[in-house]
Design a protein that fits this description.
Elements: H1 2-70, H2 78-102
Amino acid sequence: MANAQINLREIAAPRRSFAIRILGALLFVVWQAVRLTCCAVLIMLEPLLRATLVPIAFLSFIVTLIFGFLIGDPRFPRWGMLAFSIGTLMLYWLFLAVMSLFMTLPPSHDR
């Protein structure tokens, strides 16, 4: 009887490992499909965000320098505008960080 149980376990073990390998391969394929879809959407959005967020950050910084510090208008919200400028640029950097999570670049990309 003990011999029969051992043989049954030995037969069931390869089936279980095959099922785990199939499940792992399926999860890998699904992850690649989700990753590529997200990457495609983020790549399409990046020029639009770069064309809007970076100039807004630069122009608001210039306006803050001129009206907040050079002219010195007491009613101008210089620190709020400076925070808005830095926050806009940080929002673009956050987008780039999220984009880098889904992309894998070759090691020779930065050369």
